[in-house]
Amino acid sequence: MTQRSVAPCAVPSPAPSAPPPSEWWRDAVIYEIYVRSFADGNGDGMGDLLGVRSRLRYLADLGVDAVWLTPFYPSPLHDGGYDVSSYRAVDPRLGTLDDARALVAEAHGLGMRVLIDIVPNHTSSEHPWFAQALRDEPGARERYVFRPGRGEDGAQPPNDWESSFGGPAWTRLPDGMWYLHLFAPEQPDLNWENPEVRAEFEDVMRFWLDIGVDGFRVDVAHGMVKAEGLPDAGFTGQLKLLGRAPLPFFDQDGVHEILRSWRRLLDSYPGERIGVAEVWPPSPARLANYVRPDELHQAFNFNYLAAEWGAGPLRQVVDASIAATDLVGAPTTWVLSNHDQVRHVTRYGGGRRGTRRARAAALLTLALPGSVYIYQGEELGLPEVLDLPDEVLQDPIFFRTAGADRGRDGSRVPIPWAGGESSFGFSPPGADPSWLPIPRDWGRQAVIPQLGDPRSFLNLYRNAVRLRRTHPALGRGTMRWLDSPPETLFFTREPGLLCTVNLGADPVVLESPGTLLLASSDMRSNGLQAVLEPDTAAWWSRTSP
Ligand code: NOJ
């Protein structure tokens, strides 16, 4: 792994003795903080920037290179903050601009960079621009996508597009016009053909870059440009094809020109500021388009997240992902969970089996070449919460599907920090109940008890992330598969690291694998032979050929 440079301090200009660019993102471990569920500093039951600041030391000790904060902007919270009503401010429930400044400075002081979310595809319906559009002020509707309807009296939507959250992607106003919202009706899509929209977002980015953030996770980065003439998709169930087939509202070629202009903006700042694309293109090759040298630095690799637990599917997705990003010289990212997906302990079977597999997945993932994203709580082995009562659910998916899909709240339950305390240390003593209830049996999985247990999930992550930082074979570079028994994955990283994963149901005997560095479950070894139990991964140090 290449030497890492020290993170820049809060001020944008680097010290004169700053090391040459490290391209730090190529092998960074980046930790996703879902702000409202991470840590509650002010006692209102909702996570906030003060809470994040109070836990930065925990993240530095975990060994991550950067954090990504989900939206903390003022928002009516129709979609967990991805409905932004003001882009240059902090939601008063989550803190102040000064808190944001302090957070950036403190993270930098601990050697971590800070990425923030930017939401350019849509605003909140409470954004002043949309209020002006509703009043039909001159030019205001040009900033969004307004169209007359079809059919008699224009009573049918302008086309057949479906919202990602269920139902049509169009809503009609009392004056008869329709507006587009690929997500909730409270998230009207912006019109990126309008230069005013482009100028506004460049300005917003400058605002945050000037504060010192190290880059942006770009929400729906494949959605800003729609197919010319807004043609029908021609079929229903469109979102089932997300990431699998072309759709007229995602992954249009025009988005790349916008991303190129953002790359120029990022590059005009010192300190290696980056952009990360949240995209669901129909193929790895289309994904690679977003990380061409003059576009963004990284794109989330959701194909890896979506792969089944099995040697065949995982090997196939690893190869396809690396091949695609290699073509454009970009790093691959490895993502197991995020705030939109069922947590992977649960996806991998839940209970002891899911936990065991998730531990093995941690070592597999952290051994792959490229950059790794960790979703808060993943390092604690938290499962999806499947039994949240209806009355606490907040995700628009739950409401827009009339409860048929319970939505994503189960992956957003607040983090347990301390075993025995009320709210498990998520909030200060005497605080309001947390915005989503924390399961009563999460005390055992809280941070403090796990820190004291050398075999805990948390200590597995801490050891793996730390080893990844110091071992010269890990991080960026290449990998080589070795022949291995069915339902296993063995690969080397040079110099001198072997990763072995047993995804099958039977133990596998390894002959002279080397010196054990780290294993996800107990390992029986007599020096020459070792037994790799089912759903177990191990890292070995060995002399390179
Ligand atoms: C992706 C975000 O991760 C998700 O939470 C949000 O609902 C949509 N984009 C819409 O902004």
Summarize the structure in short.
This protein is of the alpha/beta class and 545 residues long. The protein has 14 helices and 19 strands. The strands form four sheets. Strands 9-8-7-3-2-1-11-10 form an eight-stranded parallel beta sheet. Strands 12-13-14-19-16 form a five-stranded antiparallel beta sheet, with helices on one face.
Describe this protein's structure.
With 545 residues, the chain is an alpha/beta fold. Helix content is 25%, strand content 14%. The chain contains 14 helices and 19 strands. The strands form four sheets. Strands 9-8-7-3-2-1-11-10 form an eight-stranded parallel beta sheet. It is globular and about 80 Å long. Residues 1-16 have low confidence and may be disordered. It binds 1-deoxynojirimycin. Residues 79-80, 82, 119, 183, 219-220, 278, 339-340 line the site of 1-deoxynojirimycin.
Kindly report how far apart the N and C termini lie.
19 Å
Mean pLDDT: 94
Alpha carbon gyration radius = 23 Å
**Uncertain runs with pLDDT below 50, 5 residues or more?**
1-16
Q: Could you tell me the strand content as a percent range?
A: 5-15%
Strand order of the largest sheet: 9-8-7-3-2-1-11-10
**Which percent range fits the helix content?**
10-25%
Number of helices: 14
The backbone outline, from C-alpha atoms, is globular
- Count the E strands: 19
What structural category arises from helix and sheet content? alpha/beta
